[in-house]
Specification:
By secondary structure, the chain is mostly helical. It has one domain: TIM Barrel. The chain is built from 6 helices and 3 strands, in the order H-H-H-H-E-H-E-E-H. It is globular. The two termini are 31 Å apart.
């Protein structure tokens, strides 16, 4: 499927100006990640190579996704990375097991799914929303709503 997308479909650049693609879809550069990692206010964590649903990957592919991104980050940051933010908030007990086995000590989920491993299922607020009002609401009220049993991420 990836080969077909890369070789047979028209390029997205044929439909969307490069400036919009760069502003909206390109990730951080190696230099930007290094600068962020050097700032004591930030922690850099794993987020995989291709941003897949990890629960849809077999064990070998999930591990390749996690360890590949980890190796790149450790090279760029010059330090050990033992934090992960699960892409799309997607994980299961097999992913948590792999994280434990590979010395990942802290995992962030948009909404904790299993509730079995506190340090590998830390709730976080999703920040990607077109409305700053929605983001402001999440920041102000998210933890309170979670304490009442609402699944907010």
């Amino acid at each position: 499927m990836i080969r077909a997308i890369a070789e047979e479909l028209p390029r997205i650049e044929d439909f969307v100006p490069e400036s919009i693609l760069a502003d909206s879809f390109l990730g951080m550069t190696q230099e930007q990640v290094g600068e962020l990692a050097a700032d004591p206010l930030f922690s850099v964590g794993i987020h995989t190579i291709d941003h897949p649903y990890l629960t849809k990957c077999d064990d070998q592919e999930a591990l390749r996704q996690i360890n590949g991104n980890r190796a790149w980050l450790e090279n760029v940051c010059g330090s050990q990375i033992d934090i992960i933010g699960y892409p799309l908030g997607d994980y299961n007990s097999a992913i948590l097991r792999q994280c434990r086995e590979h010395n990942i000590n802290l995992g962030f989920a948009v909404v904790p799914i299993l509730g079995t491993e506190e340090l590998l299922e830390v709730p976080r607020l999703g920040v990607y929303h077109a409305s700053t009002e929605v983001l402001r609401f999440k920041i102000k009220w998210g933890q309170n709503l979670r304490s009442l049993g609402f699944k907010i991420g």
